Amino acid sequence: MNFIKTSKSIALRGAPYVCFLIVFAYALYVNKDVVRADQWRFLFLIERFMDGSLSWNDLFMSHSHHVKPGYKILFILNAILFHLNLKLELLLGIVVHLLSLLLIRATVFGSQEDQFNSLCYVTLCLTWFSFNQVANFTYSLLSFGGFVGTFLMVFYCCLFDRALKENLSYRWMTAALFGYAGCSLLFHGARSLAALVALVLTLFFWIMARKPAVHWRRIVFFIFGLALVQLGYWSLLKTGKKVSADSSIMFVLGHPFDSVKYVLISLSAAVMPTSWMLKRGISEDIMALVGAFLVFTTIFILYLFFRYRLYEKTVVPLIFVIYSFMFVFEILVGRFGKGFPITNGASPRYVFDIQMLTVGLLIVTAIYLQDKSSFMLLRRIAFFFVSGIFVIQLIVMVNSLQRMKIVKKSQEKMAAIILSGDFSAAPRWVCPDKSLCQEKVQFLKLNHLSVFKYK
Q1: Which has the minimum average pLDDT: 100-109, 240-249, 264-273, 292-301?
Q2: Looking at the whole model, is its pTM more than 0.85?
Q3: What stretches pass through the bilayer (predicted)?
């Protein structure tokens, strides 16, 4: 009996590392050191750094409502130290992603993973490293830039959780504000608004649920700090040059039914390989139904979260759930009606932020199932829900691993296009602007950067 218990404990402690190693090995095998998509637009930063004309305004250039000076600084440092080794950048991003999961484990589960539902915990690890977000494992801007932002977000969420546990401690609230500022101003871009709403609503629900002695000064201090950071981000957005069109909520309001469908299809990506399924003929309506089912599931699980006062253990899952819904709303406003299809919200590059919803629901389920006295019917429903996600994630992982050679050939083709300097047949995800790429490839070649570093 002790042997079985010990083996289970070792297996659970090793689950994050096993998932990490699978993804790390995949990324190491399939990827080439190539510049792609928006990174072509960032190469001018390296040029200006080299000729001494780089300005702060350059770092604050906005693209698709994102200002990410943190990634741009790291991009320049990569060129200086490693000749713009983007494969190294991508792999480091996956390592940072593991650190985020370990931070969640330490905050939510402590050192007693084996006391929680095993299936929930393993499914959580699989979801965190889900191959539904495969774009994050093949594009270093999303991997390094995105996952560093995720780590900072998880970090300040954990600090905020600690502040609430200590009844709005100034010390922990201040630390959370600094974490939020670093994440929002340097890495998170437009996602910072979704995080802001998630923190404020979580604070509101916590006050309403616990009804503690209201420390209004502390509450005002925290909300004022969040607002100040967000105003700082918006000022940066106005400072830098824009390279994309503004979004508008008016189109969304003018197309309510299509907007709801867009949201539901996007939400389906939290549990399903939506983009892959749509490409294989599964109808949009079916994926919208999956999204609707997930909305009702979320409402029910949040009912359990408040009904059984699970927020007393942690509010981190509530932040994740609200953040995910707000993120979907942001891409609805920012992308819907801008020439993108109604299924655009389920694209692999957006999947991880949407899957934060699943992560939050799995954490709540794991905490709920820790109570052995919970209703048997609810325990069985939870078992089927978690089992379904577990099976889906395994299928997606196996399918992605089977397609590794195809992805590798695609990366090799991308490298060959860049080496040849001929972008006439290059798809948009390789090169967003053919004249720009043809100009910048000469810069890469001259300075022995990226794929040319050994040439």
Answers
A1: 240-249
A2: yes
A3: 12-30, 73-104, 137-158, 193-209, 216-236, 260-279, 286-306, 318-338, 350-369, 381-401
| Per-residue pLDDT band at 244 (split at 50, 70, 90) | very low
Give the pLDDT band of residue 243 (cuts 50, 70, 90): very low
Taking only the tens place, the pLDDT of each residue in 285-314 is: 999 999 999 999 999 999 999 998 898 899
Residue 253, pLDDT above cutoff 90 = no
Q: What is the 3-state secondary structure (H, E, C) of the chain?
A: CHHHHHHHHHHHHHHHHHHHHHHHHHHHHHCCCCCCCCHHHHHHHHHHHHHCCCCHHHHCCEECCECCHHHHHHHHHHHHHHCCCHHHHHHHHHHHHHHHHHHHHHHHHCCCHHHCCHHHHHHHHHHHCCHHHHHHHCCHHHHHHHHHHHHHHHHHHHHHHHHHHCCCCHHHHHHHHHHHHHHHHHHHCCHHHHHHHHHHHHHHHHHHHHCCCCCHHHHHHHHHHHHHHHHHHHHHHHHCCECCCCCCHHHHHHCHHHHHHHHHHHHHCCCCCHHHHHHCCCCHHHHHHHHHHHHHHHHHHHHHHHHCCHHHCCCHHHHHHHHHHHHHHHHHHHHECCCECCCHHHCHHHHHHHHHHHHHHHHHHHHHHHCCCCCHHHHHHHHHHHHHHHHHHHHHHHHHHHCHHHHHHHHHHHHHHHHHCCCCCCCCCCCCCHHHHHHHHHHHHHCCCHHHCCC
